[in-house]
Amino acid sequence: MSIELAVIGGTGLDLTNMMTGREEIEVLTSYGKALVNRGMLAGVKILFMYRHGQEHTIPPHSINYRANIAALKELGANAVIASAAVGSIHKEYSPGDLVLPDQFIDFTKARHHTFFDEPGKVVHTDMTEPFCPGLRSAINAAAGRIGTKIHSNGTYVCVEGPRFETAAEIRAYALLGGDLTGMTVVPEIILAREAGICYAAIAIVTNYGAGISSTLLTHREVCEMMLIQEPRLISILRETIVASIDMEKCACTKSVDIPEDICE
């Protein structure tokens, strides 16, 4: 499978000033409009999208995830690498660390989690391995080639936001096996799977979670850490983009289960 790669930039990631031949495209989908940048990076055609809008004005609970993924699909994307600023639930993951999550736990409450919510056949999607193993492996290898340390796994706990978690919630998430906490990967990752798009995230630890951090949590510290870590993140993305990624055996496109007549 040839890779048509899209990058979803979370807080603190902007690739537009590095892209050549860039054009901004407004895509009208069934779920609303989405803005996508199309151009070349390191000699490779990519798509880039600001998750929170160019001026970072869209809070995590108000993002139109369905329009974003539908727009990337319409423009031909079959693989997405997303960045995500996260808090750490365990001291093993320190501020400044980069992590490739391999699992998630969903604590969001009021988001559209599926494209399949219209009356008709009931559709289920396998999420045993929610983050694409092949894409994660490619990113991990790219980090190794440029000598950048990255944690190869971790469980991402997605919360509704926009508030930060309580100390009690962080303790509960730790008991459930969570390692990182953030507000954006879900339902983005679910919608990508439904659309047959491989999805991986590079999580950037910006702070320790509530009750672990010795200070109050602020968005300012998130932005400051992202500013420091953006060059490392971009280096990994560039190295991944120029590499030859083998996705021939990827199962991400085969996870949607449309029932047969026996279920009707």
Explain what this protein looks like in three dimensions.
The chain has five helices and twelve strands. The protein is an alpha/beta fold and 264 residues long. Helix 2 crosses helix 5 (219-242). It is 25% helix and 27% strand. The strands form two sheets. Strands 1, 2, 3, 4, 5, 6, 7, 9, 10 and 11 form a ten-stranded mixed β-sheet that branches. It has a two-stranded antiparallel sheet with strand order 8-12. 42% of the residues are buried.
The total domain count is 1
**H/E element order:** EEEEHEEEEHEHEHEHE
Could you report the average pLDDT, rounded to the nearest whole number?
91
Low-confidence stretches: none
CATH superfamily: Nucleoside phosphorylase domain
> Which percent bin holds the helix content?
25-40%
Secondary structure tally, helices: 5
CATH class: Alpha Beta
| CATH topology assignment | Rossmann fold
Q: Quick summary of this structure?
A:
With 264 residues, the chain is α/β, with parallel strands linked by helices. The chain has helices at 65-74, 133-145, 167-175, 185-194, 219-242, and strands at 5-9, 20-29, 32-41, 44-50, 79-88, 98-99, 103-107, 124-125, 155-159, 180-182, 198-208, 256-257.
Comma- or semicolon-separated keywords:
two-stranded antiparallel sheet; ten-stranded mixed sheet; Rossmann fold; alpha/beta; globular; 264 residues
